[in-house]
Design brief:
alpha+beta; 42% helix; globular
Length: 125
């Protein structure tokens, strides 16, 4: 949702400040939920979007014209939670939600914790 011709955001706060107000609240809530689920993760901007990284990328999120998206960085995790993700699944690992119909916080926490465990397992090998 960045303005055309504007420089890419350098921080997550900068990214969220550029988003329309209804989506700002949704992203703040999502960000806080992810932080609580992965307190050791670093926040970064990657591919022009906010993301969390711990032993590799965990999740990305973004706002668009009419929805927000959460990108779960793992096919294995998406398959594990497929039934619960179905109402939000937009294909290719993208979950769509709106401020009016947000992703359930408990589901986000479990997705993020699964990604943390998956990355830790991969790193240990």
């Amino acid at each position: 949702m960045a303005r055309r011709g504007a420089a890419a955001p350098k921080t997550v706060d900068d990214y969220i400040a550029r988003v329309s107000p209804p989506f700002q609240d949704a992203l703040h809530t999502l960000r806080a939920t992810i932080r609580r689920a992965a307190p050791g993760a670093d926040e970064v901007i990657s591919y022009g979007m906010p993301a969390f990284r711990q032993d590799g990328m965990l999740v990305y999120y973004a706002a668009f014209k009419d929805h927000c998206s959460l990108f779960v960085g793992s096919q294995r995790t998406r398959e594990r939670f497929a039934r619960e993700l179905k109402p939000f699944d937009a294909g290719k690992g993208t979950l769509h939600f709106t401020p009016e119909e947000p992703l359930p916080a408990d589901l986000v926490r479990r997705l993020v914790r699964a990604r943390v465990a998956e990355n830790a397992e991969r790193r240990a090998r």
